[in-house]
Amino acid sequence: MTLRIKDLFKTDSTQTPEQAAIPQPQNPNNRQEGETYRHWGLRVCAIANGSCYVLKPYLHNVYGYIHKEQVENEALQEEERRKTQSQIEQKRNDIEVLNSQLNDCKQRQQDNKDKISDLNAEKKELRNKAYEVNKTAKLKLILGLIILVPLTFYLFLFYSSTFYSAFFKDFGASANVLNSMFDAEALSKALETSVTELCFVLCAPIIFMGLGFSLHFFTIQKTWTKYIKMAAILCITFIFDAILAYMIGKHLHEMEVIIGTAPIGSAYGFSEAVSDINTWAVIFCGFIVYIIWGIVFDMAMSAYDQLDLNKINIKSIDEQVLTLEKEITEEKQKEQELNNQINTHNNRISDLTVLLGRTVIIDKSAIRTEMTNFFTGWAAQMNVLGMTQQEQHEANTTFENTINALLND
Question: Which residue has the higher pLDDT, 94 or 138?
Answer without folding.
Answer: 94
